[in-house]
Structure formats: C-alpha cells, structure tokens
Amino acid sequence: MSNPEDNNLPQPQAPAPVKQTKSASVNWPLGLAIVVIGGLLLARNLGFELFFLDFHNWWAFFILLAAIGPLQQAFSFYRKEGLGAAVANSLVSAGAIVFIALMFLLDMSFGTWWPIFVIIGGLYMMTSRDRS
Q: 70 and 94 in contact (C-beta within 8 Å)?
C-alpha cells in the first residue's frame, strides 16, 4: 500500500544540460593566418624584402582572410550533411569575398566587373536555406 506522504517527497531531477563550448581548435586556422601575417609584417619592418608586400594594395590580402570563415563553415556543413544547399551557400559567400579581394589585388575595374555582384546575389539566393 502506498503511503500518501511518499507523494510529497522531492523527485530526483534530471541533470542540467551541459553547455557545449566551441573548442579552441575551431579558430586555429584564422589565428595561424593572423600570426603569419604579423610575422611577415615584422620581417618587413626588420629589413627583409618581401616581394608580395611591394604591391601598392597589399592590404587586400586581409580581405582575402575573411574567406576563411565561410570556407570553414562549408567544410563543417559538408561533414554534417554532405553536399547540399548549406555547403553551396557558404562557398558562394567565400567566392564573393575572394572576388572582392582579387578586384583590389589585380586592379580590376569595378565599372567592368560589377555585374559579377548581381550574379553572386542570384547564386546566394538560389543556395540559401529556409531559416524559419
């Protein structure tokens, strides 16, 4: 027979979910790239001649670094879901960033190449996932 006082006893609770944190290894490629750039700039200041820093717009290499994030995201989506819209969307984003950097590095005329941005916009719309 059940004792009515047993119903008033505190019930064991499920353990609180453990908060997942991103591991530091996720950011190592970007960190490594920044360390390498810092080292190259320091070498230049110490008198070493670096041919690629002779470009008048060498700073555009920093824009190129921004493509690392979408490329990492594409790789992550590929490992989780295989080839799909999420991978394609991340690759379009990375491609747009690379194209912008190349426009500066190669002194490409915006007046000639601006339709590429319309094409990129269409590709982005075609590959975007429903986020609802």
A: yes
> Could you give the CA distance from residue 20 to residue 48 in angstroms, rounded to a whole number?
44
Upper half-sphere CA count for residue 31 (Cβ side, 13 Å): 5
- Write the pLDDT tens digit of every residue in 54-72: 667 777 888 888 888 888 8
> pLDDT tens digits for 10-65?
666 666 655 555 555 566 777 787 788 788 878 878 888 776 666 677 778 888 88
Are 66 and 102 in contact by the 8 Å Cβ rule? The answer is: no
Q: At which residue do the structure tokens 């019930």 appear?
A: 11
| 65 in Cβ contact with 35 (< 8 Å) | no
CA pair distance 98, 95, nearest whole angstrom: 5
The answer to whether the pTM exceeds 0.85 is no
* pLDDT tens for each residue of 84-93: 788 888 888 8
Half-sphere exposure of 71 (CA within 13 A, CB side): 13
Yes or no: say if 102 and 57 are a contact pair by the CB < 8 Å rule.
no
Q: How far is Cα 128 from Cα 132, in angstroms, rounded to an integer?
A: 12
